[in-house]
Amino acid sequence: MKVIYLDCFSGISGNMLLGAFIDAGVPEEKLRAVIAKLHIDGYHLSIERVVKTGLSAIHLDVHLEHHHDHAHDNSHGHHHHKHRHLPDIIEIIDCSSLNETVKEASKKVFLRLAQAEAKVHGTTIDQVHFHEVGAVDTIIDIVGTVWCLNYLEIEAIYTSKINTGFGFVQCSHGIMPIPAPATAELLTGIPHYAGNIERELVTPTGAAIIAALGTGYGKMPSGFISHKIAYGAGTWNLEIPNVVRLHIGEITEATENDEILVLEANIDDLSPQIYEYAMDKLFEIGALDVWLTPIIMKKSRPATLVSVLVTGQDLDKATDILFSETSTIGVRYYPVKRKIAQRGFATVHSPWGNAKVKISTYNGKICHVSPEYEDCRHLAKENNVPLKKIQQTVLEASINKLK
């Protein structure tokens, strides 16, 4: 499984992440082309190599043009002021020609950011102003990062314990403690510490990306092997390098063999509607699989066996969900072994556009090829062609490509 591990000893921000991806070899011109698809203007991107206390890193900066001329003048409808609210930002993402996977993940990050801002300022998500971070650079940072993850075919994000810095920061609402309230809200459940640097090291955008898309927090995952290391620079010059260290690597099959657990609960008194909700929550915390089996209990009562496949580190979270969301009063669990095929992706061309296919190999042989559902669904809707026809064509194209 291809994953990244972010070493956040000097905080995290959207532009630090983008810088790290460029340093890791994502082509700068491709990233610029993707950002151009958003059709927002009033900015230019600078991407340069810098040295932070002796460490070479890439610094990406979004420079806003005429930012002050129209700062309080919305009457002219200037493009870079339309996207001040969540619905406007969603519209910009939806109207772009980005692929569906990138759009969905980008919107997920924005929703998480808006929920945090709304909570701390006592407003609703649709009324949140994205002025703290400047709408344009927030859009570029979030969509750019999501696109890079997709481009590199990253399947999971892990982060170290995050250094937030400490002290106070001036923002449009007045003086705020570090981490800023929205950032603190986004970091709930994610291990972080204040360190000894009196600066705002984590931005709401950086925290939102980690919170919305992260898989595991606090330490390098077991069995992770790093293949490439890259550095993205922040704005500050500090006594420590103001960079994020990005490891691109994989979690090998050998370690996926260890410490896999099956949790089970027999339930005979729960509304069937609840199961789907509980399953979604289990998948959100990282369950590898969740399934339901009809069973017969004492006095011939029909019931449901809920089974959850998790790694050892997610045992407590999965147990909490079973107790809080279902009516069970007991959960049993036991270790299981498994062998899994290696998964990779390839992009194939069809008459209606490109689609990704997932290729599974075991012992060096291809054992299964499946077209990516979201990509095919998007092509089917856009071209008004039956989904099964798209899937069939993409499958045939991929088999020809793999011959």
UniProtKB/TrEMBL annotation:
Q: Which Gene3D superfamilies match?
A: mk0293 like domain, Transcriptional regulatory protein pf0864 domain like
Coiled coil (UniProt feature): none
Q: Which organism is it from?
A: bioreactor metagenome
Query: What's the protein name?
Result: Pyridinium-3,5-bisthiocarboxylic acid mononucleotide nickel insertion protein
**Keyword vocabulary terms for this entry:** Nickel
InterPro entries from the entry?
Ni_insertion
* The UniProt record lists the keyword Hydrolase: no
Residue ranges of the TM segments: none
